[in-house]
Amino acid sequence: CKPIVLYPTGGEETYLLLALLPTDLSEMLAEGTKESHDRAENCQFVKDFLRGRIKRELFKRGTAALYFVYSAMEEEIEKNKDHPHIAPIYFPTELHRREALARDLEHFYGEDWESQVSRKDTEPYVDRIHEVGGKDPVLLVAHSYTRYMGDLSGGQILKKVAQRALKLPSTGEGLNFYQFEGIHSHKGFKQLYRSRMNELELDADTKERIVDESNRAFGFNMMVFTELEEIGETIKEEVQDAGLGHSHAEIMQGGDINKCPYYAAKMAASGNPTYVCQLAMMLLRHPPCQVALAACVAVLAGFTAWYLV
Predict the structure, then answer these.
(1) Of 46, 60, 207, 254, which residue is the least packed, with the fewest Cβ within 10 Å?
(2) 118 and 230 together in one domain
(3) pTM (2 decimals)?
(4) Is residue 9 included in any domain, yes or no?
């Protein structure tokens, strides 16, 4: 952080700390995308996913959407891998997801999966990635950070929720996207990535443009979630419920928010000792809720780590 310095009239320099403003790019992104992150986290599609209520067809379509997004992003990263603002954060072995997603799509659709999926729902997102890759490559930093750091934060829990809800093989078929085989420590790698990003030679205006582009990336992701929600309303498919516990409505019956495990999990993740104890008691009383509550805590902790680590 860097203090604001004022030079009042009178000839003598007077330093007045008005506020501490983040100057590291990672801190600026964390602070500047909080609202967008909260909105994305509260999309119905995401909340249903975390509760293990997943329609198989929607999961397949979501995987296809990710394939087109990552294909575009990694294509542009490859084209710009020698760019001074891309080279320091170029980690194809550790991060790239296109091939993993292709294997997942083959699992769900068969060998001819390419003829069965469409990029229609992701066109604005994909077009924007290609646009910045061609005209303003430094903005790829925003797209790379938004996607990869999110995937590394809580991805293993999302994998377990999907695996159980969709009854996918324990050997990982259909879930390759969540497996970063080239990364041994997610926390350590995220620290490395942020440090590389913070070392990029960028002026204040460019950093602000990257933050703006990251918010735009969040918007594109929410657009995809909305499309999936709308498609889900037209699909006559029984929800693949993982049986992770009582519904939110049942738990909230009577209107006492303190009885809600999702609320307790969020408060516990914030460090409130009262709710840490309360969450532990709920886990003891409702063993079937363990996976759902663990998912909430892990994902919230993952998002917190995303901002603070």
Answers:
(1) 254
(2) yes
(3) 0.74
(4) no
